[in-house]
Amino acid sequence: MAIWPEERTAAAGDLDTVDMTVNVGPQHPATHGVFRMVLTVDGERVVGCEPYIGYLHRGLEKLTENADYRQAMGWWDRTDYLAGMCCEGAYVMAVERLAGIEAPERAEYIRALMMELSRINSHFMFLGAFGADVGSFGTSFTYAWRERERIYDLFEEVAGDRMFPTYFRIGGVTMDLPANFERRCREVLASIRQGLEDLDGLLTGNEVFVERCRGLTPVTPEWAIARGVTGPMLRATGLAWDIRKAEPYGVYPKLDFDIPTGRQGDVFDRFHVRLAECYQSARMVEQCLEAMPGGRVLAPKLPKTLRINEGELYFPTEGTKGEYGVYLMARGGTQPYRAKLRSPSFCNLSALRELVVGTYVADAIVILGSLDIVLGEVDK
Amino acid sequence: MSAASEVPAIAALVRERLPEVPFTASETKTYADLRVAPARLLELMTGLRDDPDLAFDLLRNVVALDMEEEGLAARYQLYSFRHSHALQVSVAAPLAAPVLPTLTGLWPTADWHEREAAEMVGLVFSGHPDPRNLLLEEDLRIHPLRKAHPLQQAEILQGIEDGPPGVDR
Q1: Which helix (H) or strand (E) holds A131?
Q2: A43 within a domain of the structure (yes/no)
Q3: Is residue B96 part of a domain?
Q4: Which of residues 53-92 of A touch B (CB under 8 A)?
Q5: How confident is the model at residue B158, as a pLDDT?
Q6: What is the pLDDT of residue B1?
Q7: Would residue B168 count as lying in a domain?
Q8: Under 8 Å CB-to-CB from A96, ≥6 apart: which residues?
Q9: Number of Cβ pairs closer than 8 Å across A and B?
Q10: Residue A8: what pLDDT?
């Protein structure tokens, strides 16, 4: 697909130019982690892009296959490390479905609440870092970090850890919420909403920012689907597809929320969909607080050692970056025979080359930022 | 897997729309599963994508499996945006010649999935446009997700090039 229709060949009589190779990463602030891309540039124009991944490959799948179903959970936190709760949720619910375990309703509400807070947390990371990519330097980053800190504080109060809480359990969650949780959570939500207003004003209200993002690499839903692009990037093209609605899990069918979409799938729409999703997540957190029943948070009579007989499943969830799917195969015993992560960042990143070629070098950084990859998830 | 007592609805629909492709249907914990021979994989997948009543336009995921004595295998998870239905296609490949046709011609997203499956488990995707390692070092010819591959081992991994691709040392 020709995203940039102009011909790059110089008209006869113009000066000849020589293509130059520019290595970006793996240690580079614009790559948001250990990602490397080799750009071939003709002047300011990118004519080739070769992504290299795997610097953060830790063997998640092999480790899971060699650990007890419960022990393995800690590894899954560390895939999308900006939203540990979402990853835990996907893995735990996949194992529960495979083993036929049901979590108590209160636990399901707590999970949805935590997953939505995690989603806000991850999107704040995007909003801050993306602002920095486009050129607002530290301001957007600091605004975003202020709110992320409050969410992490809340996680610490609930689970005892910030980034990798390992709070979920197969059959529920580790422990009940602290006594003052509802008050604290509402405080944090009010602060989040203010933070979103601030960021919206700082970025969307900035003409330079909008001019740089608007109309950059617009894509169609068909283009995105063929390349496995899901999540906010797909919704930015105008397709209202969210696994929380399309193939719901947990308590999501009981929650009322909208699916924000864009119009033309350009960089600005990708940014704006994520911003709008934060408000929806905040709505869901409030609904969870109100609707949460009392009772247990861990299913009774769970086996001491979890053994699962023959069975396999693919369990998709709406991760923060797109479809975060867990494939598990059991063939008896206490360990999964095969575990596979369908990583949304991995699939979204595979479309990078087509997006970047034809744009300017400075735009390549913005486009990479708009994909919102997290390398722990790309490399597994 | 035990044979399903009744054929899932989506499998019956596939059988009706694509009567010429033989497959056996069963059910996983989430989706229906169609087991097909490697030689008919491309035909089935083309039908699944192009038939208007099936219209599986998203290749969600590719899983490569080492089934030990049963050889290698792959699982493909598909989703249709038009009809909001999903299924899984499974295929087995003998260890001696674990060759499957590439699906990059049908879904461009298969590119990276297949590169990962090739390096991690050792499946060979014939016709793949770019069969290099993706996550592993470029010149490694090991397949870490084979069951025979140790979890931990002191090894010097760089520059292992002997042996054709797809064969674990």
Answers
A1: helix A105-134
A2: no
A3: yes
A4: 53-54, 57, 59, 61-63, 65-66
A5: 54
A6: 37
A7: no
A8: A102, A103, A170, A171
A9: 94
A10: 53
> What is residue A106's predicted lDDT score, i.e. its pLDDT?
92
Is B47 within the bounds of a domain? Answer: yes
Average pLDDT over residues B76-101: 91
Domain of B67, CATH number, reads 3.30.460.80
Convert the pLDDT of each residue in B9-60 to its tens digit: 888 888 888 888 888 888 888 888 999 999 999 999 999 999 888 889 999 9
Peptide bond into A26 cis (omega under 30): yes
Which domain range does residue A64 map to? 59-344
Q: What is the pLDDT of residue A161?
A: 87
Nearest CA in chain A to B61: A342
Q: Is B3 on the interface with A (CB under 8 A)?
A: no
- The verdict on residue B166 lying in a domain is no
- pLDDT, residue B156, reads 54
Residues of chain A with C-beta less than 8 angstroms from the C-beta of B68: none
Which domain CATH number covers A264? 1.10.645.10
C-alpha B47/C-alpha B53 separation (Å) is 10
- Number of domains into which chain A is organized: 1
Specify the DSSP element, H or E, that contains A74. Answer: helix A73-77
User: Tokens 């009809």 correspond to what residue?
Assistant: B83
pLDDT at B164 over 60: no
pLDDT at B153: 61
A63/B151 touch (CB, cutoff 8 Å), yes or no:
yes
Compute the half-sphere exposure of residue A65: CA atoms within 13 Å on the CB side of its CA.
24
ipTM: 0.84
* Residue B57 touches chain A, beta carbons under 8 Å: yes
Question: Per the domain annotation, does A42 fall within a domain?
Answer: no
pLDDT recorded at residue A5? 45
Domain annotation covers residue A48:
no
Residue A288 neighbours by CB under 8 Å, 6+ apart: A109, A110, A112, A113, A116, A251, A255
- pLDDT attached to residue A122: 93
Determine the residue among A220, A312, A379 to mutate to test chain B binding: the one whose Cβ has the most chain B Cβ atoms within 10 Å. A312
Nearest-CA distance from B87 to chain A in Å?
A: 10
Residues A125-150 have pLDDT tens digits of: 999 888 888 887 778 888 898 999 99
In sequence order, the 6+-apart residues with CB closer than 8 A to the CB of A100 are: none
Alpha helices in A227-331 (DSSP H): 232-235, 243-246, 267-291
Domain interval for residue B148: 3-161
Q: Per the structure, how many domains does chain B have?
A: 1
- Please indicate whether, in this complex, the C-beta atoms of B2 and A315 are within 8 angstroms of each other: no
Pick A98's closest partner by Cβ from B29, B113, B136.
B29
CA dist A284 and A185 (Å) reads: 12
A203, part of any domain: yes
Q: What type of residue is B25? A: A
Out of A57, A313, A347, the one facing B29 most closely (by C-beta) is A313
**Which chain A positions have a beta carbon within 8 Å of B57's beta carbon?**
222, 225-226
Residues of chain A with pLDDT below 70 are 1-16
